[in-house]
Amino acid sequence: MGKDGFNLVVVANRLPVDMSITEDGTVDWQRSPGGLVTALEPVMQGADGAWVGWSGAPDLTADPFDVDGMRLVPVSLNQTEIERYYEGFSNDTLWPLYHDVIAPPAFHRQWWDSYRKVNQRFAEAAASQAAHGAIVWVQDYQLQLVPKLLRNLRPDLRIGFFNHIPFPPLEIFQQLPWRRQVLEGLLGADLIGFQRGGDASNFVRAVRRLTDLTTRGQHVMIEATDDAPARTVRAAPFPISIDSHHFDELARSPQVQARAREIRTDLGDPEIVMLGVDRLDYTKGIRHRIKAYGELLQDGRLDPAKCTLVQVASPSRENVGAYQELRDHVETLVGRINGEYGEIGHSAIHYLHHSYPPEEMAALYLAADVMLVTSLRDGMNLVAKEYVAARSDTAGVLVLSEFTGAADELAGAIMVNPHDIDGMKDAIYRAATMDSREQRKRMRRLRRKVLTDDVAKWSASFLTTLGGIPDPAHSPAPT
Ligand code: G6P
């Protein structure tokens, strides 16, 4: 930390840990779920920066504290804000809207008011941590107004924004009653990063059509005002990744290798183990995947005595109606298939509604002959990259939805359209019966990509680009 604050401040809805206060008043914490934390944690651990975020619990106020070389700065949300800003506007308006309206987005003015208010609180917390001229890197759809609010408070800062989820086509985005305010909020940044080129161009098109601003390629021109000079905002793709070398090493460790063997034994030594790993979210195509698998058993193309599917579905956003409905649907489907094809001592599907630490995940990836990533829409999907990073044995087959950001990068996978159940059945069957020579060829290709383009490269490329953008508002530090 410098004398007047941190030179790098990350602002995200969640801290990388879920906190609680124990009975004796000390802070207890566990790792938070999701791809954002998976990607950013290693970046921050090496950076001597501060991470501003919500603790994961209502009304929890705590002083900043240090975990694994990071300064964590908790932002407090009360119960109503959790309902309106987090469960409501973030996860029942923006999340479905930005994921191709797979579930219908709900538009409520009270939720929007709460979103604005909470974004202001995050902007103030970030402003209080940042040194003069620091870089502040705002993350994801929950905080789209922060760049503008922060620039109003601290014009000296260099502000980046990264959207971890897709940015929708104009025709969908324009349903949002507050579409203009969201665009203006984002345009407070100097650099706006997206997962794919298509997301960045959707954003620029929305700016062109819904504001009076001029755009040129990836750039949006903001004219000078009485208080601020003219500036340019750049919107560009920066596909995110994982700490692939760390994951590769973890999966090579004797403990993880032994645990992988143990998992296969505990599953009854089937010939083929298939695996799905997702937050229990309707964007992930879990139902489509299970339906395809169930039909393969029904058709007799896969033998339930020789094959099993392990589906990890970690609990997520459990107070949002669409997630409750999804859980009911998935659990009914799993129950039906297990009832039909299971035997004593053998389940067709092992359904696990839990989250697991990285060691156990690595062992599961190693134990799986076929990895099923069948999202209907997904910003990137880091599970696909983790599977590849874990397979130093160059065995295993990745089945990957075309609707993930990862599909733009992972050409060695078997691509599927999860809406096409017959096509997906053929792809899963092909993966389950692929000879080891082809597996090796594909996995080598996948590993070259995932091990080269890791999360350190992603953050360095974003931060270098941000640092290189001329910022006319930059004033010299006060002496
Ligand atoms: C996705 C989002 C993240 C979010 C994570 C977990 O990866 O892009 O912003 O943190 O899901 O969801 P949650 O609502 O539990 O934070």
Automatic annotation (TrEMBL):
Enzymatic class? transferase
Q: Which reaction does it catalyse?
A: D-glucose 6-phosphate + UDP-alpha-D-glucose = alpha,alpha-trehalose 6-phosphate + UDP + H(+)
Identify the keywords attached in UniProt to this record, alphabetized.
Answer: Glycosyltransferase, Transferase
The Gene Ontology CC terms held by the record are: cytosol
The record's function comment reads: Probably involved in the osmoprotection via the biosynthesis of trehalose. Catalyzes the transfer of glucose from UDP-alpha-D-glucose (UDP-Glc) to D-glucose 6-phosphate (Glc-6-P) to form trehalose-6-phosphate. Acts with retention of the anomeric configuration of the UDP-sugar donor.
Kindly list the GO molecular function terms attached to this UniProt entry: alpha,alpha-trehalose-phosphate synthase (UDP-forming) activity; trehalose-phosphatase activity
Q: What is this protein called?
A: Trehalose-6-phosphate synthase
Q: Which domain of life is it from?
A: Bacteria
CDD domains recorded:
GT20_TPS
The family annotation for this protein states: Belongs to the glycosyltransferase 20 family.
Q: Report any Pfam family annotated for this entry.
A: Glyco_transf_20
The GO biological-process annotations, alphabetized, read as:
trehalose biosynthetic process
Kindly give the Gene3D superfamilies that the UniProt entry links to this protein. Glycogen Phosphorylase B
Enzyme Commission number(s) = 2.4.1.15
